[in-house]
């Protein structure tokens, strides 16, 4: 049975069409990613699938149960990690967790055991009885995740789980997602981080302006635009090289600066390579490395959505 | 406590969740300063403003004081807590839990209900100690305290359905209703002394019946049979619960 079936889901807020006939299915055990820029409709989709908000068109089923008509039964199977770390800051970490357990009807013995295990897993045991208003952003996020897992969900919704977090929290959360997946839990996560989708997900749906542009595994998505070729080059000293100069080279369609490297998109890598060496000689800089990587998920994303990632709040790496 | 679910099914699960919601509100909100001000001090000053300078004060006014205290304290928690939780997004937790929306409304109302029951004991005990105010009907007193508290707690939850993140928005709407209620419900001014139109309006005020029931307990002036009072309060509770459920559903987007 599919964990999620979304059939032509639409959502309209007044004049805004937030979702437009979105179709997809998520099989049990899959880690499925919703990748899209801010305002694409990711949170709206999660709010519909969890029964908080009703769709204005279409239907959705969670393990075969209609989310609008059979809401409670559908929700019993799921854990939800909302976009904001929504914890009660006047309560302790433990009180937060136990309250969630009671909402999900987890028995007293069971919730205390599960709670202790989750706090161990998320590195929160030491701060268990502290009020959460002093917690760092990463700790709040980890607590929110523990709360989402207290009822042993078969399906976990994660709305931008690692957005804007410290490295340590990020690693813990990514590890947990991987471990959950091994134990057969289905994960539906949204992200605007292309690398996260690439690393964590079995399949990715690219969503833009309320519509799905493509759904496939990260590798197959990259394959679909195999024709995009590029050269990645690093110079020394890097400060002498300007994106504008490289954009002037013949047959270069786009230049992206990635860390200390430049990525030149072109149809003619050998020709451009010669021009780069010539450019380096003229400007008295050294080429210290050259690479010709295949298309990245970022390239797929740009191709499918027509968006310039850097101006639309989509991050390529953390 | 034995865990529910295994032996009594979904109803117990829902009640248990409602109680969990109430406990959460008790832990978080009972000691918040703005709740103490609007729930405790406001009714006392309100009452003093009317009581000072009257010859019959205060023994006869004890039942009315209890009724006003309940009106204000019962409806003072949710109009503050729910907008705050909307802003903190914690309200989404309740809206996405595997429980009915009725349970969310009930659980939220319970904290206002218990708060108000506790506060109502202040004028009650004070009245018993300071003045000769004999209680003639214990059943009427208990029914009056419980039903009136529950009714106004549910009314508070109902008003809090208005989709705002600012408690002030809801408080001002609520006061637009609560303050006039005091004048048309026979609490401070006996029903016979207000204009005819006010007396008609009084029939639509739950405070009229709550006050009447508490008056009966103290052998004060009553207008209705206590059974009528009880039935009317129950009807108001059901109506508020039903409408609140509808509004929360409508505004969840
Ligand atoms: N409650 C709402 N009322 C009106 N518009 C909304 C509401 N929620 C979301 N939207 C709009 O719907 C679109 C999708 O939003 P959202 O699902 O939050 O995007 P994402 O999570 O992908 O960043 C946006 O244009 C947003 O402004
Ligand atoms: Mg979002």
Mind explaining what this structure looks like?
- Chain A is an alpha/beta fold.
- Chain A is 35% helix and 29% strand.
- Chain A has 11 helices and 14 strands.
- Chain A has a 6-stranded mixed β-sheet with strand order 6-7-8-3-9-10, sandwiched between helices. Chain A has a 4-stranded antiparallel β-sheet with strand order 2-1-4-5. In chain A, strands 12-13-11-14 form a 4-stranded antiparallel β-sheet.
- Chain A is globular, with a radius of gyration of 23 Å.
- Residues 309-318 of chain A have low confidence and may be disordered.
- Chain B is mainly alpha-helical and 253 residues long.
- Chain B has one domain (11-252).
- In chain B, helix 6 (101-130) crosses helix 7 and helix 10 runs antiparallel to helix 11.
- The radius of gyration of chain B is 18 Å and the shape is globular.
- Classes of the chains: A alpha/beta (318), B mainly alpha (253).
- The interface between A and B is medium-sized, with 30 and 29 residues.
- Adenosine-5'-diphosphate (ADP) binds next to strand 2 and helix 1 of chain A.
- Adenosine-5'-diphosphate is lined by residues 13, 16, 18, 36, 38-44 of chain A.
